[in-house]
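Quiz preparation item.
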């Protein structure tokens, strides 16, 4: 694997702008005219929590790494900083585009306003926007997922695995995207066991996005649910979700992961035996596919949706204990078929 270049803080973004402009021999008014897809340079700008969150951002990194390994692409990464605003994201994306990366991918809906602005300035560069369709353009690919469908399956699994009849959902920040996770999960639980109780808690409210970044918040929320007899807890909270997994695992109860197959995440290895399953989003392939499309000269644009029918979302079965639960697996498989066949319509709002 080639060495990854990382732009680690917003504080050096301005310097990166100047450096990249000099290196590429372009002024700030070139509007991406020197970008060459065949050069094989691609970049991702991480969401809150950054690489190492064992979840969403790490899934995006896996797609970049795959592109390096299989396509010979040279990858660049850029980390967010705490409390940053749209102007910081504009600087970061501009630095990556001006350095000749194509595509440039913003990991998360928070990049929407910045990508809308920078994409207009660099019309020959393809921009990927994950988890958002609010900002569109001729050189923007909106990479989106049916999170509610995967979460429905998690609800079925939780209802089947629970012995107390009480399960929990922890959302990182109360935004429409995470409400999709909640809606699907609650519907799956209730369709499986109408008498089940679902405890729901959001860690922070926008504009405070600490709920995606601080494990202690997830840990405290999970502990509160455990105290109220929840024995299966599903957290859609990015890095904060690792705290929920820790608390749940230490209590000997079941945790359900999100975005990546968290059973296989090295940073969570000590808790893996209590990670029943994870709701997976194929963020990795969405990143890889966009990079490949640009390299092939046929860049993706517009909405690119990943749903249950094409395994764009799903439920992981890595835990051997999960595979032993035949009744649970049968219920999940039945639900999946009924969603794909249109017999079950999963809600996107609670």
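Solution:
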């Amino acid at each position: 694997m080639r060495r990854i270049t990382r732009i680690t803080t917003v504080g050096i973004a301005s310097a990166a702008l100047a450096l990249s402009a000099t290196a590429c021999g372009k002024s700030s008014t070139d509007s991406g005219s020197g970008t060459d897809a065949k050069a094989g340079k691609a970049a991702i700008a991480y969401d809150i929590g950054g690489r190492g969150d064992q979840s969403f951002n790490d899934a995006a990194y896996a797609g970049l790494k795959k592109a390096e390994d299989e396509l010979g692409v040279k990858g660049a990464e850029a980390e967010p900083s705490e409390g940053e605003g749209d102007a910081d994201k504009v600087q970061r994306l501009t630095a990556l585009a001006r350095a000749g990366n194509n595509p440039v991918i913003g990991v998360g809906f928070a990049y929407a306003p910045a990508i809308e602005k920078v994409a207009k300035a660099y019309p020959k560069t393809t921009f990927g926007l994950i988890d958002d369709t609010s900002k569109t353009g001729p050189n923007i690919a909106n990479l989106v997922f049916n999170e509610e469908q995967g979460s429905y399956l998690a609800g079925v699994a939780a209802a089947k695995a629970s012995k107390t009849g009480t399960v929990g959902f922890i959302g990182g920040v109360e935004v429409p995207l995470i409400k999709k996770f909640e809606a699907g999960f609650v519907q799956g639980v209730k369709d499986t066991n109408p008498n089940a109780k679902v405890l729901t808690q959001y860690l922070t409210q926008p504009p405070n996005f600490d709920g995606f970044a601080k494990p202690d918040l997830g840990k405290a929320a999970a502990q509160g649910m455990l105290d109220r007899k929840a024995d299966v807890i599903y957290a859609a909270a990015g890095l904060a979700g690792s705290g929920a997994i820790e608390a749940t695992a230490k209590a000997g109860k079941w945790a359900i992961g999100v975005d990546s197959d968290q059973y296989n995440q090295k940073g969570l290895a000590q808790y893996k035996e209590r990670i029943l399953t994870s709701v997976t989003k194929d963020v990795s392939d969405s990143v890889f596919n966009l990079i490949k499309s640009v390299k092939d000269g046929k860049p993706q644009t517009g909405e690119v949706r990943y749903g249950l029918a094409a395994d764009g979302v799903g439920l992981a079965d890595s835990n051997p204990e999960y595979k032993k639960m035949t009744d649970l697996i049968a219920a999940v498989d039945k639900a999946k078929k009924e969603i794909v066949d249109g017999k079950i319509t999963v809600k996107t709002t609670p």
